[in-house]
Amino acid sequence: MRFTLLGMNHRTADVALRERATLGAADLPAALAGLRSAFPGCEAVVLSTCNRTEFYLAHPASSAIDADALRDWWAQRRPVSRDELGGATVEREQAAAVRHLFRVAGGLDSRVVGEPEVQHQVKRAYDAACDAETAGPVMHQVFQATIAAARKARRETGLSRQSASVGSVALQFARTVFDTLEGKTIGCIGAGEIAKSTLRRLLRQNPQKTWIVNRTPANARELAGAMNLEPPNGGPRAWDDLEAVVVESDVLICATGAPEPILAEAWMRPLIRKRRSRPLVVLDLAVPRDVEERVGGLKNVFLYNIDDLCEVVDHDPQRQQAIRDCEQQLAAAASTCHRRLQHRDVGQLVRQLRHKMQSMADQEQQRSLRKLGSRLNDDERDAVEALLGELGHRLINKFLHLPLQQLDATREDGSLGFYAAALRRLFDLQDDESTDREDSPDAHNADHPTTSESSKIHIKTPTPGGHELHSCSARPPSHKDDNRAAD
Amino acid sequence: MIDPVTTAGIGLLIALCVGATVQSWSRLRGRSEQAGVLVALWSAVGLGALALFVWRWINTSDSWQPLHAHVDGLLLITAVLVAALLYLTTTPRWIGVAAFGAPVVLLLLLWSFCAATWTYRPFRLDTLEPVWTGLHLACVYIGTATAALAAVAGTLYLYVHRRIKHKDDVEHLDRFASLEKLESTVQRSAALGFALLTVGLASGLVIMLGDGRAVAPGWWVSPKVVLAVLAWGAYAVLMNLRFTSTFRGRRAAYLAIGGFVLLLGVYGAVNAMPNALEGPNDHDVNLTAPPEPEGRA
User: Fold this and answer.
1) The domain containing residue A301 runs over which residues?
2) Residues A344 and A485 reside in one and the same domain
3) Which stretch of DSSP H or E encloses residue A5?
4) Using CB atoms, which residue from B165, B171, B244 is nearest to A312?
5) In this predicted structure, what is the pLDDT of residue A485?
6) What is the number of structural domains in chain A?
7) A234 belongs to a structural domain
8) Coil, helix or strand for A252?
9) Residue B105 in contact with residue B45, Cβ under 8 Å?
């Protein structure tokens, strides 16, 4: 199986294009189902955040995915043209794709380098793919390793402690206008992860009041409860109170998943007049944007959107060092993960090869038995059949012993890929999962070459720290086990 | 009287101020991060102005009053303003204040140079009530210094506001004081300036009403009085309307700058027009003595 990435991110596309191309959380199940039907036999995970929309696909080597076909599929679902996507998307394969995913999960590819939210977003994307049954053994292996490695690297390098999250940058922006948030009122539109982390950061500055407005009141109540916000010092407000919250607030955080802007310039203008020249800092952290760009032109309104975060550079040398360390750790972990992916690939090939040779041996055995014909009675026939069967099995084992030993000793990614390609070519092997399922009584074990007995290969790949990476034995939650069985 | 020590001293201060201005703008643009040279230069300017002021008080005055000519007042303003700028420069997030204060200090020093040479004219302290005159001059000059500080903070406010609005170099915006802090500085400086100018105007009024010989009829419509009242009015508006929605933020900054410009206008009128206190009914009486012939002490 080949691991492929196609997507756009904040480096390749501006926010206006990204917000048109993004797939919201509500669109994700349909998008994954669409991918499954458009590219049968592929595993797929869609990572859609404010900074990126990326498609991770695992497909058999024999049936390569056409990137243009995927762009066409994308362009049909979002108001973007294929040409726009062509100029703003990146494609990566195998090791580069795995490395990219590890960097993304570690927050190293984010606008605010080191931000922690993306780690949760990667996990949610993986969960969504599992729910939609588009994540198979390859995705389980890669994404579980990614999430575990990102968490470990961030913890060990101290990046999680020094994280310049969106919240901290938002606070920095707010402090260009307000000296302190004490005595100020914060309004938060949206109750998602970004809103939560930003609020958590701002609440440390002891604002006087904090209001949370959300279309789903239950979510607003839940977030207010998590933040210990109770009247009169804040709490959830009904969606109908949005105007009042805008008039009352000094800092307004917008982080909803709405596909269209919530705060339009025409709607805001009379509200700004009601504010009587009090400055208003609007932090639009959503993609697609929640606030029309023209709102920033209103008097006493200071609008920052997610693109402005990229301008913020953390000059703290400790943090830079932590980022470098994290980068190294994740590169090593990505390399290990990719190697495992290749070993897994080779293990499947070996199983197919063994299966093919066994079929040939069985055919020859039947032919020999037919030639002996009636010269043997039933007992002799059984004995000869057993003997030939054992002979075939022993011959196969002896033929395969040396090449498998060589493969086991191979540590370089490039060599493994070469051997895998050579095996496929020389023995006309297909890259699919059918052999796994046929050969192994337990499809779950067959997913893992490190434990599969049938392959006879025992590839042990230690991580740089001497520990095994996260177990790749499929997803732990019980309700997801059904998905795994389907794999 | 052209005093060579004073003129040479002010000339040196101008040179130092030019250096400090260049350093301040260089730091503002991020080309120089070191504050040491900047602080040293500004300290030299401030201490130099103060030293010159004290030297003139000791050597050129025969009374207890330190302010006996316009140049003394300008040197005093310079020293006070530079002290305030130095304090703010060494405070975190006040990186631009020296850059915007530098032109004002330079202007004051250039004016001091003119006032010490070509337009030198000592005050008529002998004919006026000395206590009221001392109070009047001190309040007006120190009030002007705080008004200058309000104008500098107002200019910085407009600069930072523009950068925030245009999202210009946002990663370095945290080097500047917040708009709220700048607005508060404008208001506090203006409040102090307003109080001092009010006392200065009131004491000036007492002097004029108390000594009928000093002013001519119609003095209340003379350029000096009209401009002084206008400047005072600007500050009155700034102070009394600051809590209303109309005069916050940029408008308060513009008002602070406008008030300071009006004050400069008052000084300009006083210096440029020898009979600045005369109204429509011409009289040759004013608060400043005619220029003394060169060579006389």
Assistant:
1) 166-311
2) yes
3) strand A2-9
4) B171
5) 29
6) 2
7) yes
8) strand
9) yes
